[in-house]
What does this fold into?
Amino acid sequence: MRIKTFLNVIHNSRGTTLLELLAALTIMTIVIGLIWTIVFQVSTQSETTAYHTQLKQEANIIISELKEKHQAEEAILCYEDGQLRDGDVPLHDERYSLENIRIDTAGMTLEKEGTCFDAKFDSAEAVDISFTLRSDDSEQGLTYDVDTALYPDNTADDITPPDDLPAKSSSGGNPAFGNNH
It folds into this structure.
């Protein structure tokens, strides 16, 4: 009996009205618009995050290079055209530029565009470093600020083994605990 009623309803329907069709199109347009907006925002946020991650990695490379120069105790640092160089060798990718740079050692400071100094780093002294790294690739003009210091690494000099270590026996066992053969 139910099947007959269902077939009568289907058979007696007059189709969709123009108003129902317009309502369905309006709802579909709103849903598609919302989905498009979400996809666009996620894509933009993903690109921004990728650029920001690249900026952080490049800043880490610059700090690592400066730490290496600090430990080597010698470098010719030049800051020109937004680039930091050791002599003619750039310390970072040229897709990025540096702004507001300040490298402050006990004896010298590098902070003006177009200046160089022959840095005789004293590896026993701290070096204060600050700069803003700018991505020239990004349309958003993303920047990453760095404010850090390089400290002397003299931890290896401070570690001395204790005098009362037991000697190893020739069989590889520890004489304090006996050999378990």
